[in-house]
What does this fold into?
Amino acid sequence: MIESWRWYGEFDPISLNEVAQTGASGIVTSLHAIPYGEVWPVEAIAARKAEVERAGFDWVVVESLPVHERIKKGEGDLSALFANYRQSMANLAAQGVRTICYNFMPLLDWTRTDLAAPVAGGATCLRFDAVRMAAFEIHMLARPGAEDDYPAPVRARAAAWFQQATEEDRRTLVTAINAGLPGAYDRYDIAQMQAALAAYDGMDRATLRANYRRFLEEVVPAAEDLGMRLCVHPDDPPRNILGLPRIVSSGEDLAWVLAAQDSPANGVTLCSGSLGANPANDVPAIAAQVASRIHFAHLRNTRSEPDGSFEESAHLDGDTDMIALIGVLLNEQARRRAEGREDHTIPFRPDHGHHMLSDLGRDLVPGYPLIGRLRGLAELRGVIRTLSRA
Ligand code: DNO
It folds into this structure.
């Protein structure tokens, strides 16, 4: 497996020199300054690639080449957006960057309600709290129908939280909910989020799937011609939120995606933390089910609570059996090797990590600290080496 590390380029307070000390060899990055939907120019791609290579790394995966919201909404004439996506892919392929991670989550990317929930000893982790999410949706966003999405005990605790919350608490919650959106664009305050949700009014699962199918039809054949691999990132959390459908949340959903364009260019980012936040998802089993189409892995763990809340645990310590999952990925690599494929190694990155130790004094990207991820990488590396020898 290729040890890789997500780096946010000019927006990342962590330097590539620091990353070099982690032992990772691959960099996962994006051109975060380019607005969604625009073509990524060859020069900008080449400059980023040169920067990554000067520091001694390979640019192994683009995360993400984002899908414009209008494509998700199926809004108006999308031909220019599809053409731009294909052009960006061609420009990346021309530079030898061939694996592209993206998601098809409407409106928000990964969503948490707390960016600094306490863990033992003074470290912090990311947390999704059903009560705070309910408070946000029902009392701050006043989303019609939000109450129906939460059971009475959660609604009652949400009302209590909202009543005692200070202005500062509420602002912090809005910031946390927006934190998953990468890059410099698209942060929403309450009014903007209400407007953005209104633009999705009436969106149901079937329509979102039809819009996704159309996207795949428009880009997968081009990716195949370019020798590229697209790999969709699962929904995080893996359930509907804000009244919007989410359609990449389970093994069945992934089967639907893969069947929609049955091509090796249409693959999956196996994100154990995203899928694992639904206790019904057996992550090693899902990985085995889609193994031949896994082009990239995000390895992290979560611990779920009965009310739908979950917290990010240490990489080996949550609900997902990480040893079993890595075993599935290593088996798949062995299968590819036996087929004679040169590209049999699957890139992975330690996904997220606790903010801990000297990172607590640094202003880092939420979920992307140096030391917590280094800890995760070191633990995962140990598992991989051990299983590889067995
Ligand atoms: C979260 C990330 C996601 C991922 C996108 C891919 O930490 O894994 O934000 O980058 O969903 O488009």
About this structure: The mean pLDDT is 96.
